[in-house]
Amino acid sequence: MTTERRKIVLDAIVRDYIATREPVGSKGVVERHHLGVSPATVRNDMAYLEEARLIIQPHTSAGRIPTDAGYRKFVDSIQELKPLSRGERAAIEKVLFEAVDLDDVLVRATRLLSQLTNQVAVVQYPSLRKTALRHVEILELSDTHLLVVIITDAGRVEQRTVSVSEPFSNLDLDTVRNAINKAFAGKQLKELRGVQAEVFSAVREHQQGIARQITEVIEETLAAENEERVVVAGAKNLTRYRSDFQGAISPLLDMLEEQVVLLRMLTSLDDGLAVQIGTENDDETLHDASIVSTSYTGGESASIGRLGVIGPTRMDYPVTMSGVYAIARYLSDVLGSP
Fold first, then answer.
1. Residue 231 — very low, low, confident or very high, per pLDDT cuts 50/70/90?
2. 214 CB contacts (<8 Å, ≥6 apart)?
3. Which of 99, 194, 200, 208 has its CA 20 to 30 A from that of 164?
């Protein structure tokens, strides 16, 4: 019973501190959480939790506040995420499914996530390395130039111009297009080279030069790391928590403008729903912050990108985790729709 009560006391301290940003005392815990024990008993439990470095006393005669380890203990004890309300679910579905293209979907998802959690939201574009090819279109721009339109199963569209040295006809383009789509459709980047021979065997000898140029462009496009980027929303929310950050908040705001840094941060996290708390983050800029993130899928692909929120360690973890999980699920549904 003592172990279970200490867990309840820690849970109460975390929840009360998140709600008030005021150190939590034993009397308040007893009164607000109806533990059925005396404040003296709770003080003994607090002493144990403090010795275990799960809580600290910020100054003499004050209550206690959670440490990063205390937040971690609290997060690890969350066994079930609170579902969104019917109204929240309906609003998300309406906003996301009305999007007109991939860019619009991701911007809307990022804004929704920020609104749900009152934190900074970050959504990674579907990785071209992880998505599968849905369709390739080849359009004639001039006698010597073609436009190659590459569409992934996540709805991402990339366009590339190809200069050709050999004459071609519409029949040539139709043949090459059909051969590429038959061999490449549903394949990821790592699988394309294994089926190139199917493309070349399906076209005539004079069409192989064009076919080779276009297949190389497709591979280069899907392999291009510089195309990876993120969408950010709600950066102004950080200013609401300025007092939660011991140092200046400006380095964190600067970080939100660095695409490469944000991508590295997101892709370094574990698959599935992950929570990085304070000093668990490698980047010192994030030592007063927590990151809650998860992956999303699209089409027949497995994980093709990540999304998450950044906020102070004193964030409402149950609400934040629920919001991140929900937006990822809806985003996967939208991107997986034909």
1. very high
2. 136, 138, 146, 148, 162, 176, 180
3. 194
